[in-house]
Write a structure and sequence with these properties.
alpha+beta, homodimer, 6-stranded mixed beta sheet, 301 residues, 26% strand
């Protein structure tokens, strides 16, 4: 498949978007196509963020994985999306569709994992639903968050020449167990949107090869990636770093003037977390550096 | 199983509630145990309602059911919960975990069903996620809603002597196809909370035999049900009316003075919808009229 062609998943989403009617009025500030929806309901100048996300047994976790780790992951995936918008999580609703053997201790451990994330990132579980399935379990987390409107970060807003940064290291998330124990870049993102004018930001969930084209498309730009610069987790090949997905790192774009001053400030503030320049946004149509790499596609043909 | 014993599902929920820490402060007005969570984030005197709910293939819909009807049902279940709190729906996030054969036209039809409900009940789809499963599909709908705080209806708040009412007719929801085409009691609920002081309200999703004890428990009361009065769908036995579930009708309690004036007003306003007195709330510990009937229990032993 050419890197210029829409992935299966992006094509499905494009089709569904055409079915959904656009909200009118000023209430909905961001909807389909961003990491979170953003709604004006709170005090002036603040946005309510909304995110829903599911982990599926056999896809996002295995039968043998600790349910506490699964709960942590399910919650932290949503925290990562709220963070990518510059926000802080607030409330969570948990929908658990589980197999018969998972109704007791398994579910309690799952909730302990979610609660652990809640204490860490400041959200409260305020509701949920339980249902049974004969097939793989599905745990859905619906999360609200809050962000000042002036700090709200989106995928769009990048311009040609903006410098692209990635936090942490990419690839081998499943193989290394990172996908179950990652810490979403919550503090880092809150610091970023307060200190810098973040032109565009998203979290990396499907791999840089899938997600960078999405950020560029939302910004109406192209991109030039420097594949040699892409930070890899220990043992990861470039293809794995670009394509494995579930990195839950931040990808963001800064104007060149901001880019020149972030690195020193970042090292001071987050000495344990890598920050790497991986390329820049370019004129629309330019797509360089990905080669034939592809991200994770839920609906690849 | 004795009707006095907690059902499997209620026992699981009680266990999970003990794990979840209580939110502090005034932001969260209602949480676990009500039809929706309610949060103070908007203008003074208004509440944001939050609901998440899933339909599961093989449980809530069948492989042969029209995906458009499944979308309608998935959305309207949440509308019914928002309505039971006296609110109006606003935003929706849809999480679709589907099998390989459902990625194209099936998903588009599902979205058309959701959109149809959105046009009818005034919500907008503002985001969603897609994932694949090898097992039964799971469609999760996370919905926001709004209600004036003075109109917010909860399960608790009923008092001994309050009169219990049920809308519509109960039982045989699956057998009759009602569960796929029901219209949530949205207008009825909005009218109710504006015209009457609704002491307690919920929507009937697991059957009166499961849900009435929940409303009474939340209110700290008992109940006396008049089984002969329970409105049955055509062909439904009393056991079916009490136990089938998926009725999506309203169960609510009014003070006797309000109860005496609602019936004429209701007939005038909603001539096509039955409203039936089915009993009253009583002193704590009193539980009469259910016999051995049980509602639907996702986690029955």
């Amino acid at each position: 498949m050419s890197a210029h062609k829409k992935s299966g998943e992006d094509a499905v989403i494009a089709r569904l978007r055409r079915i959904v009617r656009e909200p009118r009025g000023a209430r909905v500030r961001a909807g389909i196509g961003d990491d979170c929806a953003a709604v004006r309901v709170g005090p002036r100048g603040r946005l309510l963020l909304l995110k829903a996300d599911a982990v599926v047994e056999g896809r996002h976790f295995g039968k043998a994985d600790s349910p506490r780790a699964v709960g942590w992951k399910a919650a932290c995936r949503a925290v990562s999306d709220i963070a990518a918008c510059g926000g802080r999580p607030a409330e969570v609703l948990v929908t658990c569709v589980v197999r018969s053997g998972q109704a007791g201790a398994w579910l309690a451990e799952l909730y302990r994992g979610i609660e652990k994330a809640g204490r860490e990132y400041g959200f409260h579980v305020v509701g949920g639903e339980l249902a049974r399935t004969r097939g793989p379990a599905v745990i859905n987390v619906a999360m609200t968050g809050e962000v000042q409107e002036k700090h709200f970060a989106r995928r769009g807003g990048g311009r040609p020449g903006d410098v692209l940064f990635v936090t942490g290291a990419l690839g081998r998330s499943l193989a290394s167990g990172w996908h179950l124990r990652f810490r979403p870049r919550h503090e880092e993102a809150c610091w970023l949107v307060r200190r810098f004018r973040v032109r565009a930001m998203m979290d990396l969930s499907d791999g840089l090869a899938a997600d960078l084209p999405r950020l560029a498309a939302a910004s109406g730009t192209g991109f030039v990636l420097d594949p040699v610069a892409v930070p890899r987790r220990a043992g990861a090949t470039l293809a794995q770093a670009l394509g494995d997905g579930e990195d839950f790192e931040l990808l963001f774009a800064l104007a060149p003037a901001d880019a020149s001053r972030i690195e020193a400030a970042w090292r001071m503030r987050f000495p344990g977390v890598r920050l790497t320049r991986v390329g820049e946004l370019a004129a629309r149509g330019v797509r360089r550096g990905l080669g034939g790499a592809r991200g994770f596609d839920h609906f690849a043909a």
